[in-house]
């Protein structure tokens, strides 16, 4: 065990005491260390407004017993200093607070075999709970593409885009990670029980909240910063002007992570928030998984070719041949001299072009002159 037992137990106790992401708690842990902070609070020392009333609650916590109970239900408590600790979360120390939630977590409760150290190149896919079929399809395709390329997909396990992202990753046989606002031992929403069961068996369910905790609104705000911090980049698919997904996006910006958005119809309220961020330039526009891979991959890899229409036989003609072709009538035939006048070119040049066009199947000669073939007609 890389972290002293006393420190781990102190972190468990402090995790039980405060709300996830409570900035006074995370700040004091960073300043004093978990063991010293635990001792001072037990001694009823008033620290940064935490007050002396916390001593009784803290004394009632049995962290060793909490760890034993957690182990019985398949949970582990990962803390800074563990081999499994995702060190990218340490960036939260300098990122400031947002909605009074911030700082490096005291610890993370994890359920599932996935090693959190494997999240360094992960991609978060988040968005509206009230997703449209369009949003579901795009989120699923993006998740499947990045998962196939070896990037673990992180999302929040909620309805809508979160669910589509997890399913897209799972469809490739890859693990996915759900960061939740309740205890990692709980299922929220309840309708996603089967999905959470699969994630817990193949990936990981992660929470800053202690086991048994309910999904309170403020815990979602704390959870959002973890999704952004754990991931190399965040993709927002469908988010209204007022949206929790945009809270995650704001954290991604604060943490200097790659922030991407999928544009939606200008008439869709579900995409109004994303579209506004795209308009202002705070998000990079992506429309598919390949676009995401280009932005999160090392320079020079996963480059996306610009979209082009399929080349046609007409595209392979020279400018002069196209000029002559435009002068050939579709129905009645026309002589070479008539075509030359219509094209504004010399007769010798037109005859050469007509020969080439006949070989390519665009024109055919008849008794009454030259005319277009079916290949040349719109």
List the helices and strands and how they pair.
Elements: H1 5-17, H2 23-32, H3 34-42, H4 54-59, H5 63-72, E1 75-78, E2 97-98, E3 101-102, E4 108-111, E5 123-127, H6 133-148, E6 153-155, H7 161-170, E7 176-180, H8 193-202, E8 204-207, H9 217-230, E9 233-237, H10 244-254, E10 258-262, H11 272-280, E11 284-285, H12 289-296, H13 319-327, H14 336-343, H15 347-359, E12 363-366, E13 369-372
Parallel strand pairs: 5-6, 5-9, 6-7, 7-8, 9-10, 10-11
Antiparallel strand pairs: 1-4, 2-3, 4-8, 12-13
Concise synopsis of the structure shown:
With 378 residues, the protein is of the alpha/beta class. It has helices at residues 5-17, 23-32, 34-42, 54-59, 63-72, 133-148, 161-170, 193-202, 217-230, 244-254, 272-280, 289-296, 319-327, 336-343, 347-359, and strands at residues 75-78, 97-98, 101-102, 108-111, 123-127, 153-155, 176-180, 204-207, 233-237, 258-262, 284-285, 363-366, 369-372. Helix 6 links the parallel strand 5 (123-127) and strand 6 (153-155).
**Total number of helices:** 15
Number of strands: 13
Query: What number of domains?
Result: 2
* Distance N to C terminus: 73 Å
SSE class = alpha/beta
Shape: elongated
Poorly predicted spans:
none
Reading off the top of the CATH hierarchy, the class of the largest domain is best stated as: Alpha Beta
Would you identify the CATH architecture of the largest domain? 3-Layer(aba) Sandwich
Order of helices and strands: HHHHHEEEEEHEHEHEHEHEHEHHHHEE
Task: Outline the structure in words.
By secondary structure, the protein is an alpha/beta fold. The chain folds into 2 domains: 70-296, 3-Layer(aba) Sandwich (Rossmann fold); 314-376, Orthogonal Bundle (Arc Repressor Mutant, subunit A). Helix content is 41%, strand content 13%. It is built from 15 helices and 13 strands. The protein has helices at 5-17, 23-32, 34-42, 54-59, 63-72, 133-148, 161-170, 193-202, 217-230, 244-254, 272-280, 289-296, 319-327, 336-343, 347-359; strands spanning 75-78, 97-98, 101-102, 108-111, 123-127, 153-155, 176-180, 204-207, 233-237, 258-262, 284-285, 363-366, 369-372. It has a 9-stranded mixed β-sheet with strand order 1-4-8-7-6-5-9-10-11, sandwiched between helices. The N and C termini lie far apart (73 Å). The model has no long low-confidence stretch (mean pLDDT 92).
């Amino acid at each position: 065990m890389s972290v002293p037992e006393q420190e781990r137990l102190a972190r468990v106790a402090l995790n039980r005491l405060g709300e996830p992401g409570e900035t006074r708690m995370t700040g004091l842990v960073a300043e004093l260390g978990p063991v010293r902070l635990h001792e001072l609070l037990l001694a009823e020392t008033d620290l940064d407004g935490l007050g002396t009333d916390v001593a009784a609650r803290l004394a009632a916590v049995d962290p060793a017993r909490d760890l034993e109970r957690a182990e019985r239900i398949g949970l582990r408590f990962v803390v800074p200093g563990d081999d499994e600790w995702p060190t990218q979360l340490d960036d939260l120390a300098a990122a400031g607070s947002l909605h009074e939630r911030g700082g490096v977590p005291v610890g993370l409760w994890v359920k599932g075999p996935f090693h959190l150290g494997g999240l360094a190149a992960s991609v978060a896919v988040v968005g509206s709970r009230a997703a449209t079929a369009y949003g579901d399809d795009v989120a699923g395709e993006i998740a499947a593409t990045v998962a196939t390329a070896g990037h673990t997909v992180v999302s929040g396990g909620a309805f809508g885009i979160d669910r589509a992202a997890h399913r897209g990753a799972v469809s490739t046989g890859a693990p996915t990670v759900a960061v939740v606002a309740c205890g990692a031992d709980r299922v929220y929403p309840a309708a996603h029980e089967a999905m959470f069961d699969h994630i817990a068996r193949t990936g990981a369910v992660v929470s800053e909240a202690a086991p048994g905790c309910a999904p309170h609104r403020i815990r979602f705000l704390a959870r959002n910063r973890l999704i952004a911090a754990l991931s190399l980049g965040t993709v927002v698919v469908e988010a209204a002007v007022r949206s929790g997904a945009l809270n995650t996006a704001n954290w991604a910006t604060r943490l200097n992570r790659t922030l991407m958005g999928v544009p939606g119809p200008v008439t869709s309220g579900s995409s109004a928030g994303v579209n506004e961020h795209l308009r202002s330039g705070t998000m990079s526009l992506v429309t598919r998984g390949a676009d995401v891979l280009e932005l999160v991959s090392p320079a020079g890899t996963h480059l996306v070719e610009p979209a082009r229409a399929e080349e046609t036989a007409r595209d392979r003609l020279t400018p002069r041949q196209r000029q002559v072709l435009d002068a050939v009538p579709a129905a009645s035939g026309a002589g070479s001299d008539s075509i030359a006048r219509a094209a504004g070119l010399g007769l010798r040049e037109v005859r050469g072009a007509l020969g080439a066009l006949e070989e390519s199947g665009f024109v055919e000669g008849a008794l009454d002159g030259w005319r277009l073939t079916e290949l040349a007609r719109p």
